[in-house]
Structures are given as C-alpha cells and as structure tokens.
Specification:
MutS, DNA mismatch repair protein, domain I, three-stranded mixed β-sheet, Dna Ligase, domain 1, about 475 residues
Length: about 475
Amino acid sequence: MDCFYAACERLREPALRGQPLVVGMGYESDEPHGAVATASYEAREFGVESAMAISEALERLPRKVEAAKDPDLDVEEAGFYRPVDLDYYNEVAADVKAILHESADVVREVSIDEAYLDVTDRVAWDGEAAEEADLQSVTAFARDLSERVREEVGVVASVGVAPTMSAAKIASDYDKPEGLVVVEPGEVREFLAPMDVAEIHNVGPVTARELRDMGIETAGDLAASDPDRIRERFGERGLEVRRFARGEDPREVTPVGEPKSLSRESAFTDPTEDVEEKRAKVRALAADVAERAQREGALYRTIGIKVVTPPFDVNTRAESLPGPVEDADLLESTALDLLEEFADDRVRKLGVRVSNLSFTEGEQASLGGFEGTAESATADDDSGALADESAEDGAVGDGSDGDGMQVDEADEGRTLADWADDSGTPGDDEAANDEAAAADDEPADEADGRSPEERDGQLSLWEYE
C-alpha cells in the first residue's frame, strides 16, 4: 500500500488530501514527542522522513495550526500531524485483504499493508514464457485489483507482477504511488540490472555499503560477481541476494496462520429501502459465509453484519454466542435479526461476518440458554497496492511504503478482524476476509538493525512497542 497510515487518515478526514501529512508513533496533539511512522509524499518534499523524531520533523514542517498564528511562519510551508491509530488502520487493512483473498487462491500477508499473491491459476501467464495476450491478461488482472482496492476501500496500492517473489517486491516499489509494473519471464535480470544494489531484496544499508566497497554498485554488478567472493564476505545470505539479483528465486507464496474472521459483502446497484431486497441480500451473504466456514472447518463465536448507508456511513452490529458453533441456520437468523435495526434505512451495501474462529475438533457449544450481546460501531468512509511474487509462476506483490507493522500470529491484540469504512461501490460480492497473521520475510539488516519498512521509507512500529 502507498503511505498506508496517511491514506487511512485521509480516508476518514478528506480535507487532508493533497496536504503534507505526518503520522507519528507516540505523538500527541500539540506535543513535540514521538517519532514519524509515515510521512505523505507531500511531507517528504519538506525533508520529513520515517523514524525521524517529531521534534525534528516540526522544524522542517511546522503544524498548520501554529503557522496560522505565527507571522514568522508560512501556512503554505506547514502541514498536519496525526497520532497513529492502529485499530482503525487494521479495519481498513481488513477490507483490503478481503479483496486480496477473493482475487487469489494463495495469499501471504507479511504486514498490515503488504501481501504476496500467487495468481498463477487466475491468469494465462505460466511463468516460463509470455505471449502478448498473456501479458495483457496479467496486466488487466493487476489493474483490476488495484482499481478494486481504490474504489471499494478508498486507499491506493502499487502492484508489481513478476515470476519471482523478490522481483515482484521490487516491481511494486518501482513506480509509486499507485504504480503498476509487470516484469516478464526471462526479463527479470535485465529489469534489475541498472538498479542500485540497495534496491535488491534483503540488501540493507550496511550490506550495500560493503558491496560498494567491493566495487559492486548495481544489481547487474552483483549478478555478474564471483560467487566465491560473495560467499567469503557475506556467507550464504550473500549468495541468496546474488541469486535475487540474477532473477533467481525459488520461493513460493505460502500463507501464514489461520484466518481470524470470514466475511462476505455486496453492494446494491443503487441504495435501497426495500426490506425484502435487503433481507434477501443478507440471506445470500450468510449462506456464502456459512459454506466457507464449513469448507475450512471453522467454528465461530461471533456473528455480525455491516451496513453501509448513504453517503458512506458504515455501521457494524454483532452478537456473541456462548461458545463456538457451525450452524448455517443460526448464522442466517442472527444476521437477519441484526438487520432489523436498519429496516427503514436506505442501504448502499451489506456484509455478513463471523469471527472469534476456532479450528479445533472439539464439541460445539450448546445453544441452550443462548444470550447474545450486541455491539455497535459507526464510521464514515471516504474514497481509494500489491506485489505478488510466486516462484516460477505469475505472482503479484503488495508494494508497501512500509507503514508495515508486523502482524505476528502470536501477538493476540493485533488481529485484522474489524471492518473498514467502505464507499459501497457497486460490484461483485467481496471476498471472505481471512485476517491471517504473518511475519515479514525480509529480515532487518543485521549490522544495521533497520527493518525493511525503514529501508522502504517508513517506520516499523515494533521499534516503539
């Protein structure tokens, strides 16, 4: 995703669009504390960078509100600051990832704003050779994916497509923001050759400096280098990045973890008040979710709905069960009961969701004495990327600007379970939401201690937890 945290803030506060925007970790309004988690492209023009202290960022880019009061400051040379809101960003990410899981059979989520998709079975490209028609198919698929994210969620993504994971990652970063770069089979090495060696997957600043000291300036230099010399200096990891520079990457896209929730959403062509039309939509969505849960062997303890009303108001309602169940009839009836609150409302879009999933073989909970508790939340949605890289096959990867907080499955408070605001754009039913936890496959440069997110221009939030 492109400047994901900033994009999320603009989603709920449209006035921030086009303005210099800094999102700070540990930042509080009117205070100079904390560090920059991400800076919008407009803020970067003033020299604000990720991991920079907020105090230093304020020297380069004062707050608008302060500039308006200080005659010595130029309002046009000032910007906006907002604190990190991970709960909200996770909600938006959940909507994006729902689209990804619908668009590919295999998805690897590596952070809140980055994922790899194996789309081999969705396009004609076989990863070995590509005819013009195949390339058109791949490009059209990637463009449609990017457009769906922008139109249905309201944030923008950059997409890189390549026959290997490492190349697709680089392709996704190649033409930000909202870029789309396709690297054909057999052309990966040529594509990478002129790039600075620091652009190669898993090459951090320290490694890049050491390579330059060896006279290796570009990916092409690294690809043509003596493997024994590289091994002697960097060990097996050095040989791995040399292979990446040569376009060789045998890794396959593999999912990590189990889903935290399953959902299905669908928009009406036009907002409707028709009660039966809304109920019919919920029945169909509930049936889809129930079928998905059964197929994946998932029991659920929470059943919820999502209702988007004009203009873009998002309402969620949920009921908690006394224990995990797998019951299509109960799912449908509960969703319909929750919908009753919106019987008289004009609705743009509806969704059905189950969460608090369990994949054990244990007994289902007894429904005797069922007592649900209702929860609700309302938000506004405004409107608006990915790099998939699978070994030897057509792959697409999410090009993150690296707001990229890692989502570790063992870290229980960082699920992507909640739903994001949605513009309710008409279209096909949206995908079931598999909020899988993941670990980034790009380790920090050992000598430098910096995360891939920092190297991509944004800050890893693990630094501040």
